[in-house]
Specification:
alpha+beta; 21% helix; elongated
């Protein structure tokens, strides 16, 4: 959309009282990124020289941990270099040095994503560091860190005791950022400029196609600008909005908008032979003697409100899988929930389940390669890892066995007299979400409720275009094995283990919880699956959550499962 069309979309401009004031930042949001060696980024297929935004995560811009040493740099203007200036920095990476105009300002800074999110490194610049006019700042970085979509970056330079109160933020018309009609596809820019400035508004879809890049005048005042996006974002899908105001300094904001998510469609249907592939796997599992065992854990039971057991069972290929089994101390039979793990998670922390005294059985299953079930099959989570393990062989890929582990766990629950077999639910997020979708379909006659959060592997042909580092990860795993087949062949096998085609086979009530900022398992895949489910269903979108934050809504999910399983 050009400037003329954008101006035609402006619905109203009104004077408002500024709230949530942000002071100016002399540094822009856009930075140059330059990797020192080409091999630094070859593992991710990322650009060696590019522009990145500090408003967005590394992952959404094609970078990830292990990409190697790089330099971040940008230029900025200073009007009064005689003032004393304060620099604050907090990044999801390791910083070995920060320089301004070639002068070293500070040395080594650790990745502050996990710890110290609210404690940036603070440095008062030495006198004479800045010059009037254009200045340059550079940072030597490495180990670009995982975020899951939510970032806590601060790169802020301003005068000490700065009283300038410029600010910019965006708001969307609904609390969950969902637009179900054209009159809800709007964004309101709330700004305060202490001098005449401009606002640069950019919109792109989740497939990284830029749809709008336009500059709007921001006169000196407190004001709002409301912009219609129905022409910019006409198709059902998910849209990233960034806005940067440049007046006295820079202020910026980023948000996501979901447009008619219940109409998001996927043209990827079940690959030829999909049903036969899984029918043969089920037949192979059926002839494996389960050999169930239960061993009460006295140490865990002593600190739990339920009795806790370590259970084991034989799955396809003769692999033993195990899990934590929580049984109420009251009389049964009880409803039950099968908890399925995310990628790399083996229920190492079961505190929440230990403290839960709900009249409900839970089985936290460690599928092969995870937690208690890593003793025989353990390819890890690097390259090739669980996902890339023998990805060239349709009968050896991990998820063929992992899905059967989940089916065997349902068999276990159905075999137990303390379990009410009419009321079994399944729950999982991330990889666990993909496992939950597949399990609910493969055991559709035994599962009474499904709750899943942003699933993986799901709609993988779109996933590799949205989270682009996934494609390179698959190619690296293929190279690990000496490239025994083409990438196209790999994707045909990925089609067989994709959870998406299972969705149309689900027959139980379903809850989907979606984190709109999730760029680990983007919501596109979760909604393409959701929209194929024909049974009663509902979704909840958390607009300000990323992948990690998406796991913090257990109380909502478990309440829904309990209420659904009681019916």
């Amino acid at each position: 959309m050009n400037n003329r069309n954008l101006k035609m979309s402006i619905l109203c401009i009104s004077m408002t009282l500024a709230t949530n004031i942000k002071a100016q930042n002399m540094l822009p949001a856009d930075w140059q990124i330059d990797f020192h060696k080409a091999q630094s980024v070859c593992s991710r297929g990322a650009s060696r020289h590019s522009t990145i935004s500090t408003l967005l995560s590394w992952e959404s811009q094609g970078y990830f941990a292990g990409d190697g040493d790089c330099t971040l740099s940008t230029s900025f203007d200073i009007r009064n270099p005689r003032l004393q200036y304060l620099l604050k920095v907090k990044m999801q990476c390791v910083i070995s040095s920060i320089k301004i105009n070639g002068r070293l300002i500070t040395g080594m800074q650790k990745d502050q994503f996990v710890t110290g999110k609210d404690t940036p490194t603070t440095v008062i610049l030495p006198k004479g560091t800045l010059i009037k006019g254009e200045n340059k700042i550079s940072m030597e970085c490495s180990e670009l860190g995982y975020t899951g979509g939510m970032i806590h970056t601060i790169i802020d330079l301003r005068p000490v005791n700065d009283c300038n109160k410029e600010r910019l933020n965006m708001s969307l018309p609904t609390d969950n950022h969902v637009s179900l009609s054209d009159n809800q596809s709007i964004v309101t820019l709330h700004y305060r400029a202490t001098r005449n400035g401009t606002i640069r508004l950019r919109v792109e879809n989740d497939f990284h196609k830029q749809l709008l890049d336009s500059v709007i005048a921001a006169p000196q005042r407190d004001s709002t600008i409301t912009i219609g996006l129905s022409r910019t974002c006409p198709e059902p899908g998910f849209y990233q909005l960034t806005a940067t105001m440049h007046a006295q300094g820079y202020t910026a904001d980023a948000q996501w908008l979901a447009v008619k998510p219940e109409s998001v469609k996927c043209d990827n249907r079940a690959t030829a032979g999909f049903d036969d592939y899984w029918s043969r796997a089920l037949d192979e599992l059926a002839v494996v003697e389960p050999q169930y065992t239960m061993q009460r854990s006295d140490s865990l039971s002593a600190i739990s409100r339920r009795d806790v057991y370590i259970v084991s069972m034989k799955s396809i290929g003769g692999v033993t899988v195990r899990g934590y089994y929580f049984v109420p101390r009251s009389g049964g039979p009880h409803r039950a929930v099968l908890q399925l793990p995310g990628y790399g998670w083996g229920f190492e922390d079961v505190t929440g389940m230990l403290n839960d005294d709900t009249d409900r059985i839970e089985l936290a299953l460690c599928v092969r390669g995870h937690g208690l079930s890593r003793d025989v099959f353990n390819p890890g989570f690097g390259i090739p890892g669980i996902w890339g393990y023998k990805l060239y062989d349709r009968d050896s890929v991990s998820y063929r066995g992992i899905y059967m582990d989940c089916v065997r766990a349902v068999d276990f629950l159905c075999s137990r007299k303390e379990v009410d077999g009419r009321h079994i639910g399944v729950k999982g997020g991330s990889q666990g979400g993909g496992l939950a979708l597949a399990t609910s379909a493969l055991c559709h006659d035994k599962i009474s409720a499904l709750a899943y959060f942003d699933p993986f592997p799901c709609d993988m042909r779109h996933q590799i275009r949205i989270r682009t580092i996934c494609e390179t990860e698959l190619k690296n795993s293929l190279a690990y094995y000496g490239n025994p087949c083409t990438f196209a062949d790999v994707m045909k096998i990925q089609d067989l283990t994709d959870a998406l085609p299972f969705a149309m086979k689900i027959s139980c009530p379903t809850l989907y919880t979606a984190a709109l900022r999730d760029d680990d398992c983007p919501v596109h895949g979760g909604f393409t699956a959701y929209n194929m489910i024909k049974s009663p269903k509902k979704y909840i979108i958390f607009p300000n959550d990323g992948h990690i934050e998406g796991f913090t809504h257990d109380s909502i999910i478990m309440e829904w499962l309990d209420n659904t399983l009681k019916k």
